[in-house]
Design brief:
2 domains, 7-stranded mixed sheet, binds zinc ion, alpha/beta
Protein backbone atom coordinates (compact mmCIF):
# COMPACT_ATOMS: atom_id res chain seq x y z
CA UNK A 1 0.00 0.00 0.00
CA UNK A 2 1.24 3.43 -0.96
CA UNK A 3 1.75 5.34 2.35
CA UNK A 4 -0.23 8.48 3.16
CA UNK A 5 2.05 10.88 5.01
CA UNK A 6 0.68 13.63 7.26
CA UNK A 7 3.11 16.23 8.60
CA UNK A 8 2.32 18.70 11.37
CA UNK A 9 4.07 21.98 10.56
CA UNK A 10 2.98 23.31 13.94
CA UNK A 11 0.39 22.87 16.69
CA UNK A 12 -0.19 26.33 18.17
CA UNK A 13 -3.40 28.33 17.77
CA UNK A 14 -4.04 32.11 17.62
CA UNK A 15 -0.46 33.07 18.49
CA UNK A 16 2.78 31.15 17.97
CA UNK A 17 4.63 29.86 21.03
CA UNK A 18 8.35 29.72 21.77
CA UNK A 19 8.44 26.03 20.98
CA UNK A 20 5.44 25.75 18.66
CA UNK A 21 4.56 27.18 15.27
CA UNK A 22 1.05 27.90 14.09
CA UNK A 23 -1.08 24.92 13.12
CA UNK A 24 -0.81 23.75 9.51
CA UNK A 25 -0.82 20.30 7.99
CA UNK A 26 0.66 18.72 4.88
CA UNK A 27 -0.63 15.50 3.37
CA UNK A 28 1.41 13.78 0.69
CA UNK A 29 0.21 10.83 -1.31
CA UNK A 30 1.12 9.43 -4.72
CA UNK A 31 3.31 12.35 -5.69
CA UNK A 32 0.86 15.06 -4.68
CA UNK A 33 1.50 17.37 -1.73
CA UNK A 34 -1.44 19.27 -0.28
CA UNK A 35 -1.38 22.01 2.32
CA UNK A 36 -4.15 22.58 4.87
CA UNK A 37 -4.07 26.16 6.21
CA UNK A 38 -1.19 28.51 5.64
CA UNK A 39 -0.45 30.58 8.74
CA UNK A 40 2.60 32.81 9.25
CA UNK A 41 5.77 30.71 9.33
CA UNK A 42 4.45 28.00 7.03
CA UNK A 43 7.13 28.41 4.37
CA UNK A 44 9.91 28.24 6.95
CA UNK A 45 8.43 25.08 8.40
CA UNK A 46 8.05 23.59 4.92
CA UNK A 47 11.75 24.23 4.31
CA UNK A 48 12.58 22.20 7.39
CA UNK A 49 10.17 19.42 6.51
CA UNK A 50 10.48 16.57 4.02
CA UNK A 51 8.17 18.49 1.64
CA UNK A 52 9.23 21.03 -0.94
CA UNK A 53 7.37 24.34 -0.76
CA UNK A 54 7.46 24.59 -4.55
CA UNK A 55 5.76 21.24 -5.07
CA UNK A 56 2.45 22.19 -3.47
CA UNK A 57 -0.29 22.90 -6.00
CA UNK A 58 -3.31 22.99 -3.74
CA UNK A 59 -3.93 24.75 -0.45
CA UNK A 60 -7.12 24.50 1.59
CA UNK A 61 -7.83 27.42 3.95
CA UNK A 62 -10.29 26.41 6.67
CA UNK A 63 -11.32 29.99 7.51
CA UNK A 64 -10.17 33.56 7.22
CA UNK A 65 -8.77 34.13 10.72
CA UNK A 66 -5.23 35.52 10.61
CA UNK A 67 -3.70 32.42 12.22
CA UNK A 68 -4.87 30.31 9.27
CA UNK A 69 -3.93 32.26 6.14
CA UNK A 70 -1.39 35.06 6.69
CA UNK A 71 1.46 32.81 5.58
CA UNK A 72 0.13 32.71 2.01
CA UNK A 73 1.77 36.01 1.13
CA UNK A 74 5.32 35.22 2.19
CA UNK A 75 5.11 31.81 0.59
CA UNK A 76 3.73 33.12 -2.70
CA UNK A 77 6.39 35.82 -2.68
CA UNK A 78 9.17 33.23 -2.25
CA UNK A 79 7.76 31.08 -5.05
CA UNK A 80 7.64 34.16 -7.26
CA UNK A 81 11.32 34.86 -6.56
CA UNK A 82 11.96 31.22 -7.48
CA UNK A 83 10.07 31.84 -10.73
CA UNK A 84 7.38 29.29 -10.16
CA UNK A 85 5.21 28.80 -13.24
CA UNK A 86 2.75 26.09 -12.17
CA UNK A 87 -0.74 27.07 -11.16
CA UNK A 88 -1.62 27.21 -7.47
CA UNK A 89 -5.21 26.54 -6.43
CA UNK A 90 -6.45 28.17 -3.24
CA UNK A 91 -9.65 26.83 -1.70
CA UNK A 92 -11.22 29.16 0.85
CA UNK A 93 -14.64 30.02 2.29
CA UNK A 94 -16.85 32.62 0.61
CA UNK A 95 -15.14 36.02 0.61
CA UNK A 96 -11.68 34.49 1.05
CA UNK A 97 -10.65 35.18 -2.54
CA UNK A 98 -11.41 38.90 -2.23
CA UNK A 99 -9.54 39.21 1.07
CA UNK A 100 -6.47 37.39 -0.25
CA UNK A 101 -6.43 39.36 -3.52
CA UNK A 102 -6.80 42.67 -1.70
CA UNK A 103 -3.74 42.09 0.48
CA UNK A 104 -1.72 40.54 -2.33
CA UNK A 105 -2.41 43.32 -4.82
CA UNK A 106 -0.47 45.78 -2.69
CA UNK A 107 2.68 43.72 -2.34
CA UNK A 108 3.14 40.78 -4.71
CA UNK A 109 2.77 40.16 -8.39
CA UNK A 110 2.83 36.34 -8.55
CA UNK A 111 4.89 34.73 -11.33
CA UNK A 112 2.27 31.99 -11.69
CA UNK A 113 -1.51 31.74 -12.10
CA UNK A 114 -3.64 31.43 -8.98
CA UNK A 115 -7.03 29.81 -9.18
CA UNK A 116 -9.54 30.43 -6.41
CA UNK A 117 -12.23 27.93 -5.50
CA UNK A 118 -14.95 28.72 -2.99
CA UNK A 119 -15.47 26.01 -0.41
CA UNK A 120 -18.86 24.37 -0.28
CA UNK A 121 -20.13 21.39 1.64
CA UNK A 122 -19.33 18.12 -0.12
CA UNK A 123 -16.60 16.70 -2.33
CA UNK A 124 -14.54 19.57 -3.72
CA UNK A 125 -11.60 17.72 -5.20
CA UNK A 126 -11.44 14.32 -6.84
CA UNK A 127 -8.85 12.52 -8.93
CA UNK A 128 -7.73 8.97 -9.74
CA UNK A 129 -6.29 8.44 -6.27
CA UNK A 130 -8.21 10.43 -3.66
CA UNK A 131 -10.94 12.93 -2.91
CA UNK A 132 -11.28 15.81 -0.48
CA UNK A 133 -14.58 16.62 1.15
CA UNK A 134 -15.40 19.87 2.94
CA UNK A 135 -17.62 19.84 6.02
CA UNK A 136 -18.99 23.04 7.57
CA UNK A 137 -17.90 23.63 11.16
CA UNK A 138 -19.23 26.01 13.81
CA UNK A 139 -16.92 28.94 14.52
CA UNK A 140 -17.11 32.76 14.73
CA UNK A 141 -16.89 32.99 10.95
CA UNK A 142 -17.54 30.40 8.20
CA UNK A 143 -15.09 27.56 8.71
CA UNK A 144 -14.61 24.14 7.10
CA UNK A 145 -13.15 20.83 8.14
CA UNK A 146 -11.72 18.45 5.54
CA UNK A 147 -11.77 14.74 4.94
CA UNK A 148 -9.00 13.36 2.79
CA UNK A 149 -10.08 9.99 1.42
CA UNK A 150 -8.13 7.55 -0.65
CA UNK A 151 -10.33 6.11 -3.39
CA UNK A 152 -11.78 2.70 -2.58
CA UNK A 153 -10.00 -0.16 -4.25
CA UNK A 154 -12.64 -2.27 -5.97
CA UNK A 155 -10.35 -5.24 -6.46
CA UNK A 156 -7.20 -6.39 -8.17
CA UNK A 157 -6.60 -7.23 -11.81
CA UNK A 158 -6.30 -11.02 -12.03
CA UNK A 159 -3.70 -11.80 -14.72
CA UNK A 160 -4.26 -15.51 -14.67
CA UNK A 161 -7.97 -15.11 -15.11
CA UNK A 162 -7.39 -12.85 -18.11
CA UNK A 163 -4.93 -15.27 -19.70
CA UNK A 164 -7.35 -18.17 -19.18
CA UNK A 165 -10.04 -16.17 -20.97
CA UNK A 166 -7.72 -15.92 -23.97
CA UNK A 167 -6.95 -12.22 -23.68
CA UNK A 168 -3.43 -11.63 -25.01
CA UNK A 169 -0.91 -10.21 -22.51
CA UNK A 170 -0.27 -6.54 -23.36
CA UNK A 171 -2.10 -3.23 -23.68
CA UNK A 172 -5.54 -4.84 -23.48
CA UNK A 173 -4.81 -5.67 -19.84
CA UNK A 174 -4.35 -2.00 -18.98
CA UNK A 175 -7.56 -1.11 -20.82
CA UNK A 176 -9.56 -3.69 -18.89
CA UNK A 177 -8.02 -2.60 -15.59
CA UNK A 178 -9.11 0.98 -16.35
CA UNK A 179 -12.67 -0.16 -16.93
CA UNK A 180 -12.73 -0.11 -20.73
CA UNK A 181 -14.35 -2.88 -22.77
CA UNK A 182 -12.11 -4.93 -25.06
CA UNK A 183 -12.88 -7.29 -27.91
CA UNK A 184 -10.90 -10.49 -28.54
CA UNK A 185 -11.89 -12.86 -31.38
CA UNK A 186 -15.37 -11.36 -31.53
CA UNK A 187 -15.92 -11.73 -27.78
CA UNK A 188 -16.35 -8.68 -25.54
CA UNK A 189 -14.74 -8.60 -22.10
CA UNK A 190 -15.29 -6.07 -19.32
CA UNK A 191 -13.48 -5.27 -16.11
CA UNK A 192 -15.65 -7.56 -14.05
CA UNK A 193 -14.49 -10.59 -16.05
CA UNK A 194 -10.91 -10.11 -14.92
CA UNK A 195 -11.11 -8.62 -11.44
CA UNK A 196 -10.53 -10.35 -8.15
CA UNK A 197 -13.00 -8.48 -5.97
CA UNK A 198 -11.81 -10.23 -2.83
CA UNK A 199 -8.70 -8.04 -3.01
CA UNK A 200 -10.79 -4.85 -2.75
CA UNK A 201 -10.70 -2.56 0.29
CA UNK A 202 -12.07 0.75 1.52
CA UNK A 203 -9.84 3.80 1.07
CA UNK A 204 -8.03 5.21 4.11
CA UNK A 205 -9.33 8.50 5.54
CA UNK A 206 -7.89 11.45 7.45
CA UNK A 207 -10.12 14.16 8.93
CA UNK A 208 -8.78 17.62 9.72
CA UNK A 209 -11.05 19.56 12.04
CA UNK A 210 -9.81 23.11 12.64
CA UNK A 211 -11.46 25.83 14.73
CA UNK A 212 -14.90 24.79 15.91
CA UNK A 213 -17.24 24.21 18.77
CA UNK A 214 -17.52 20.44 19.27
CA UNK A 215 -19.92 19.25 16.61
CA UNK A 216 -21.94 16.08 17.00
CA UNK A 217 -23.00 16.35 13.36
CA UNK A 218 -19.52 15.45 12.15
CA UNK A 219 -19.46 12.13 14.01
CA UNK A 220 -21.28 10.30 11.24
CA UNK A 221 -19.11 11.84 8.53
CA UNK A 222 -15.89 10.80 10.21
CA UNK A 223 -17.08 7.40 11.41
CA UNK A 224 -14.10 5.01 11.82
CA UNK A 225 -11.70 7.50 10.29
CA UNK A 226 -8.08 6.27 10.33
CA UNK A 227 -6.72 9.52 11.70
CA UNK A 228 -8.74 12.32 13.29
CA UNK A 229 -6.87 15.60 13.64
CA UNK A 230 -8.95 17.81 15.91
CA UNK A 231 -8.38 21.22 17.44
CA UNK A 232 -8.06 21.34 21.23
CA UNK A 233 -7.53 25.02 21.95
CA UNK A 234 -8.61 24.77 25.57
CA UNK A 235 -8.89 22.40 28.53
CA UNK A 236 -12.09 21.33 30.19
CA UNK A 237 -11.48 23.76 33.09
CA UNK A 238 -11.59 26.58 30.49
CA UNK A 239 -14.85 25.35 28.96
CA UNK A 240 -16.52 28.77 29.33
CA UNK A 241 -13.71 30.38 27.34
CA UNK A 242 -14.00 27.65 24.72
CA UNK A 243 -17.69 28.31 24.27
CA UNK A 244 -17.16 32.07 24.12
CA UNK A 245 -14.42 31.86 21.47
CA UNK A 246 -16.19 28.96 19.69
CA UNK A 247 -13.43 26.43 20.17
CA UNK A 248 -13.12 22.87 21.51
CA UNK A 249 -11.42 21.47 24.57
CA UNK A 250 -9.18 18.39 24.62
CA UNK A 251 -12.03 16.50 26.28
CA UNK A 252 -14.45 17.62 23.53
CA UNK A 253 -12.09 16.36 20.83
CA UNK A 254 -11.63 13.03 22.59
CA UNK A 255 -15.38 12.63 23.02
CA UNK A 256 -15.88 13.16 19.28
CA UNK A 257 -13.09 10.65 18.52
CA UNK A 258 -14.71 8.07 20.80
CA UNK A 259 -18.20 8.56 19.34
CA UNK A 260 -16.83 8.34 15.80
CA UNK A 261 -14.77 5.23 16.68
CA UNK A 262 -11.73 6.92 15.17
CA UNK A 263 -8.63 4.76 15.01
CA UNK A 264 -6.28 7.50 16.19
CA UNK A 265 -6.67 11.07 17.46
CA UNK A 266 -4.04 13.79 17.01
CA UNK A 267 -4.65 17.11 18.77
CA UNK A 268 -3.52 20.53 17.55
CA UNK A 269 -4.22 24.31 17.73
CA UNK A 270 -3.30 24.81 21.39
CA UNK A 271 -3.80 28.06 23.27
CA UNK A 272 -0.58 29.67 24.52
CA UNK A 273 -2.18 29.47 27.97
CA UNK A 274 -1.77 25.71 27.89
CA UNK A 275 1.90 25.13 27.32
CA UNK A 276 1.88 21.94 29.35
CA UNK A 277 0.96 19.54 26.57
CA UNK A 278 0.98 16.64 29.02
CA UNK A 279 -2.06 18.08 30.76
CA UNK A 280 -3.85 18.29 27.39
CA UNK A 281 -2.87 14.73 26.54
CA UNK A 282 -3.98 13.29 29.89
CA UNK A 283 -7.35 15.01 29.64
CA UNK A 284 -7.99 13.52 26.20
CA UNK A 285 -6.66 10.07 27.04
CA UNK A 286 -9.21 9.70 29.84
CA UNK A 287 -11.87 9.59 27.16
CA UNK A 288 -9.95 8.28 24.14
CA UNK A 289 -6.77 6.37 24.80
CA UNK A 290 -5.18 6.37 21.35
CA UNK A 291 -4.52 10.12 21.43
CA UNK A 292 -1.25 11.78 20.52
CA UNK A 293 0.14 15.30 20.58
CA UNK A 294 2.32 15.62 17.50
CA UNK A 295 5.63 17.38 17.90
CA UNK A 296 6.76 20.07 15.45
CA UNK A 297 7.32 18.59 11.99
CA UNK A 298 6.24 15.13 13.10
CA UNK A 299 5.01 12.91 10.29
CA UNK A 300 2.38 10.24 10.80
CA UNK A 301 2.17 7.52 8.18
CA UNK A 302 -0.92 5.43 7.63
ZN1 LIG B 1 -7.29 29.45 14.79
ZN1 LIG C 1 -10.44 30.78 14.14
Amino acid sequence: MEPIRTTFLGTSGSVPQKDKNFSAIVISFRGETILFDCPEGTQKQLMQSEHSLMSINKVFISHMHADHFLGLFGWISTMTLNQRKEKLTIYSPKGGKEKIQKIMKEVIRPSFPIEYIELKKGVIEKNDYFEIKAIPLKHEIPCYGFIFKENDKIGEFDRNKAIKLGIPVGPLFAKLAKGEKVKVNGKTFTQKDVMNYKKGRKGRRIAIIADTLPLKQIVKEINQVDLLIHEATFLDKQKDKAIEAMHSTALDAATIAKKAKAKKLALFHFSARNNDTNEILQEAKKEFNNTIIPSELETITI
